[in-house]
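User: Before I run my own analysis I want an independent prediction to cross-check against. Here's the chain; please return only the structure tokens and, at the end, one sentence I can use as a sanity check.
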Amino acid sequence: MIPGFGLTFGITISMLSVIVLIPLCSLIIYSAKLSPAEFWGIISGKRVLHAYFVSMSTACIASLINAGIGLIMAWVLVRYEFPGKKIMDGMIELPFALPTAVAGIALTHLTTKEGWIGAFFDRFGIQIAYTKAGIVFALVFVGIPFVVRSVQPVLEKLDGSYEEAMEILGGTPAYTFVKVILPEILPALIGGFTMAFARCLGEYGSVVFIAGNKPMDTEIAPLMIMSKLQEFDYEAATAIALLMLLTAFVILLLNSAFQYRAARMVK
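Assistant: Structure tokens:
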């Protein structure tokens, strides 16, 4: 029915296979060489579990921050007109374009005791660089575009007549936001949160410099994978990577379930 459907569909399947399916299948096949006891022994190691906990906890905190700040930024970009709006809108996507290693070096310089941000917080005895706070700081930077770009289109298409009707009926701005606006943008906000969480969980380049990489302290799961690869311990690296892959699938599944439930609540 669609002209060229056979060719375009074949190209789509081929690209998905090369880019996504084949690498994921090879990861699973390589992990299958390990016995269940060996696999469990690797992923249940004390150092691996701590690194995984650091990645999960910092990614969750950063994503929650991104959900709040991203919603505010999307609201400002949609509802207000001000000089430099287009520049600010373009800067939102800077973390997408900027190499993660460059971002990591820049953020580290900013948050050390000699940096602009680090020097300010150092006056109060707060250290950012080489701590979990530094990891969260870097993850907020890389994750914020996902929330903004998820919520922004929904806000742009939101019918303002519902808000006007609520105001006529005497609803306060806060009540109008909770009862009218939030249910409409909730699926997009959940989607942005989960995408930011997935990105933060697997982030390496922008975190490795600012984290300090202290074992049993600020070591993250992606760094554990790189360390195992440098030691030529491919079995351990593959096992940890497979655990991260399964976590990513669970996140996507939860994302779909939450978005579906939120959409049904709106209807």
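Sanity check: The chain has a mean pLDDT of 86.
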